[in-house]
Specification:
The protein has about 900 residues and is mostly beta strands. A hairpin with a 4-residue loop joins β29 (about 545-560) and β30.
């Protein structure tokens, strides 16, 4: 095995050396963004110096302005790929407008724009000058600019990027701690940051995200991916960071924040540059009393802090070469929130992240561009137990985990006639190191004996089911399990500290090598756009597999009606999550000795997916855009995480297959005299099929049967964002309304399971039956107390029977739990956020301005859940009402 790994590593090193030696030392450029160049002349053809040239997207509100130089030339760099209206103004001349569609990294030359004298006409349209708000693209996506991100009232420490995507993208179900479920998947997201691909988890529990202060724009693709993208492709977030290139003068911001839970923080941004050099630096820090989403509505033992530093350097020595470097380092430290059953627990976690991502671009001609993006990135996670192991319940655990990812992505883009071609390679290696310790501290957790009601008796002197009868108890076996559904495990007895056991110790390392080759062509044929591509992935890790992946998309622009119709197909190669992959693949039959943790057969294999999308865009005049998409995805080997008990430690698992389908959509306005709005919506059905492999010990009741709705399944979610800003960048107000119909609750399938919970858990759920209400002091509810009364919860729907208890005759169908057709769910919730602020508090002239704002998250202080005792994510309440004040200075 060691020789095999060494050989694969050598292959990657040779490939990297060949790539990095093809021309120049690479310190390379990233970028999926574009470049626009051109010149401005007067009616006689003479060059116009000092003309103002602006590009603007009317939907995303992205805008950039430059001045023509002594040669009448202008250049826009770092432009997110999108459609824009280019406007040229100069004293004594009429305004000229031109539509520009940036769809490639190849620099686009709009040639010479000729201005007319002001007396001749008031405006000259070089092309059709009406703002182009529809995009002839086979894949559904949305664009989020920095101007929008800054005006979304939200507060989620260390997860601003996730919040921006969740609040702006249809079909994305919100989950706790910076997680989100894109279109029925769990965290199947690739982040492309200035060309650097990151497919590992970006939740604050795994890796500190890039702060929004460093981001210029996001393109979130939810439709079928092109051949360029692999690994995790349910949502692809292509991120363009801020740059100082061509700024001409220093710019930046200083901001301080203070809010609920003693939250204090600040941000510093500084950019400067010339046409040949640019630098942008962003430094952020925060300390708060509520860092993670908590297992109780009240936040306690939840302090945390987060610091990030990002620096981007750009060098363009000439018109052909462009160098680029992204540097990123971050640290997060936080407590693991307790619930009322774990008040003495003092677990915490530290996450360290750093990244070095250079890049290089070389323009061979006006039609061909080479892009090379090497990178190296590391996440280190340390999970610390309480000083007293027996303060942790039902188990104590610790972990040190390293994930080092390095590789190169390189491609050549060529524009020739109606063809826009890109072909390249994506090579990478992920080095994993996992150290894990575990010991049981609760004698009832792996109890060999139960009483007549199925409750573990908790006698640490009993170590074998054969001893139960003499003690007046029953054996806790597979055909007679305890009320939690967990039978006694003889193998786990070795690590039961209450029964003279010892801690389980695991230490292992492994390398995951991946090779991908891709080619794609966007072919324009009249009003049609055909996207044709092919990708070949090779995965060599704990297992090996190769995946061929054809891709096809068709878009048709009915120009007279402002309509775009689209349909697409993609076969994708799905890869397992890397976090805790080694241990998760070592448990189960044929894995660790005696199948210690009771997991199913291993290892976790790569899978494949067939994905179909069809949708449309419809422009209503120049002011409204409707975008809707239907998706259907069939996946063999569908992935998720299984949470370890009540911790934040998760282990990857895989199911035999999944069937996902649903709709996503967004209705957006352009800027209407300072007012702008959008409404996103989504509906997702997420059906998963047994058997399941991998993981460790599942949280909550075990799943069984053939097919079930996983907790990514949500009937409907939507976000309404209304924003108004007075002219001249002054006062603004932003209102966000978020509706979630409720994710599936796997850990409490029905009323019988709810009555088996601890009194504190019942009180947290707002459980009641008849006139009896569970409180933190009354000992909870039981079947004897409730009798024939309905058992209801304020926070989950709670079917009355069907999973843990039999249904009496004539039970209404809606009260019978069914894992596929009527699973227990979180109750629907309506959450309102409000932001009020100004970009120019003192109404001063010039670029130096004081900014201020007040943001209120969960305005009505709604008490609601993301999930409860979820097999996949545990228990988390949505944040209570949170207020954050900001004061800043921009220049």
């Amino acid at each position: 095995m060691k020789a095999h790994t060494t050989t694969k590593t050598a292959v990657i090193l040779v490939c990297l050396a060949l790539l990095l030696g093809c021309g120049v030392f690479s310190f390379a450029q990233s970028i999926n963004s574009g470049t626009i160049t051109g010149t401005v002349t007067d009616p006689s053809g003479a060059l116009v110096r000092g003309a103002t040239v602006t590009i603007r997207n009317p939907v995303s509100q992205y805008q950039q302005t430059v001045m023509t130089n002594d040669m009448g030339a202008f250049r826009f760099s770092n432009i997110p790929q999108n459609g824009y209206q280019l406007t040229v103004t100069a004293s004594g001349f009429a305004t000229a407008n031109q539509n520009v569609d940036v769809r490639s990294s190849v620099p686009m030359d709009v040639m010479s724009i000729r201005l007319q004298v002001a007396s001749a006409s008031t405006s000259v349209n070089v092309e059709a000058a009406a703002p182009t708000i529809v995009e002839n693209d086979p894949s559904a996506h949305i664009d989020v600019d920095r101007n929008l991100m800054l005006k979304i009232p939200q507060f989620d420490p260390g997860a601003g990027l996730s919040e921006a995507i969740t609040y702006s993208t249809g079909g994305v179900a919100a989950d706790a701690n910076g997680f989100f479920h894109p279109l029925g998947d769990h965290a199947q997201v690739s982040f492309i940051i200035d060309g650097q691909p990151i497919s590992d988890q970006q939740s604050k529990l795994f890796s500190t995200q890039l702060p929004t202060s460093a981001i210029q724009s996001i393109e979130a693709t939810t439709g079928t991916p092109t051949a360029e993208f692999g690994d995790k492709s349910s949502l692809i977030a292509t991120i363009t960071t801020r740059s100082g290139l061509g700024a001409g003068k220093a710019f930046g911001n200083i901001e301080a924040t203070y809010g609920s839970f003693g939250s204090t923080g600040g941000s510093i941004g500084l950019g400067y540059g010339t046409p040949k050099f640019g630098n942008f630096l962003a430094v952020d820090g925060l300390r708060t009393g509520k860092f993670l989403d908590t297992p109780e509505h009240a936040a306690f033992h939840d302090k945390g802090n987060n610091q990030t530093i990002f620096d981007r350097v750009d060098i363009q020595p000439n018109g052909r070469d462009a160098f680029h470097l992204n540097l990123f380092a971050a640290r997060s430290w936080f407590q693991i929130p307790n619930n009322f059953d774990q008040l003495a627990q003092d677990q915490h976690e530290r996450v360290l992240t750093w990244s070095f991502a250079p890049g290089y671009q070389h323009t061979f001609s006006a039609h061909t561009l080479l892009t090379v993006n090497p990178y190296i990135r590391k996440d280190q996670v340390n999970y610390y137990p309480s000083r007293d192991p027996f303060a942790d319940t039902p188990a104590t655990q610790s972990q040190t985990r390293h994930l080092l990812n390095w590789g190169v992505k390189a491609d050549i883009s060529t524009v020739s006639g109606r063809h826009n071609i890109k072909y390249g390679i994506d090579l990478k290696q992920t080095r994993l190191l996992e150290i894990f310790n575990f010991g049981i501290t609760d004698p009832t957790f792996n109890d060999p004996c139960i009483d007549s009601s199925g409750t573990p008796i908790g006698d640490p002197t009993l170590t074998d089911p054969g001893q139960c009868a003499a003690a007046g108890a029953e054996p806790n076996t597979a055909d007679n399990p305890d009320v939690g559904g967990r039978p006694f495990s003889p193998a786990l007895l070795l690590y039961d500290l209450t029964r003279a056991g010892r801690q389980f110790n695991f230490h292992s390392a492994a390398n995951i090598n991946q090779y991908a080759f891709y080619g794609q062509d966007a072919i324009t044929a009249g009003n049609f756009l055909f996207s044709v591509g092919f990708r070949l992935d090779r995965y060599d890790g704990l297992v090996s597999k190769t995946g061929p992946e054809p891709r096809l998309g068709i878009a048709y622009n009915i120009k007279g009606t402002g309509t775009v119709l689209r349909v697409a197909y993609a076969r994708t190669f799905e890869t397992p999550f890397n976090e805790n992959l080694i241990l998760s693949s070592a448990t189960g039959v044929g894995g660790l000795a005696q199948n210690v943790f009771g997991s199913n057969s291993v290892p976790i294999n790569p899978g494949f997916r067939n994905q179909f999308n069809t949708g449309f865009q419809q422009a209503l005049g120049k002011f409204l855009l409707i975008d809707a998409d239907y998706f259907w995805k069939y996946t063999h080997n569908a992935y998720d995480f299984g949470v370890l008990l009540n911790t934040t430690i998760t282990f990857p698992i895989a199911w035999h297959n999944s069937k996902l389908d649903g709709i996503t959509g967004r209705i957006s306005t352009t800027n209407l005299h300072g007012f702008q709005a959008y409404w996103t919506f989504g509906h997702t059905r997420a059906r998963y099929f047994f058997p399941e492999v991998g993981g460790l010990i599942l949280q909550g009741a075990p799943l069984n049967g053939n097919v079930f709705r996983i907790d990514h399944d949500q009937a409907f979610q939507s976000t309404l964002n209304l924003r108004y800003q007075r002219p001249h960048n002054a006062e603004w107000v932003s209102f966000v309304y978020r509706y979630d119909s409720g994710l599936v609750v796997s850990g409490v399938p029905d009323a019988g399971a709810a009555l088996a919970l601890s009194p504190n858990q019942q009180a947290s759920l707002g459980l009641s039956c008849g006139s009896n209400v569970a409180t933190y002091t009354n000992g909870g509810l039981s079947p004897d107390i409730c009798g024939n009364n309905l058992v209801v919860s304020k926070l989950i729907t709670l079917p009355q029977c069907g999973s843990t208890i039999d249904c009496p005759p004539k039970t209404p169908k809606g009260q019978i739990e069914n894992d596929d057709h009527n699973p227990d769910r979180v109750k629907p919730r309506n959450v309102f956020n409000l932001g009020i602020g100004t970009d120019n508090l003192l109404h001063s002239e010039g670029t130096r301005r004081i900014t201020a704002s007040l943001e209120i998250v969960n305005l009505t202080d709604k008490v609601a859940l993301y999930n409860f005792l979820s097999t996949f994510s545990g228990t988390h309440f949505i944040p209570p009402r949170t207020m954050v004040g900001r004061i800043g200075f921009t220049f």
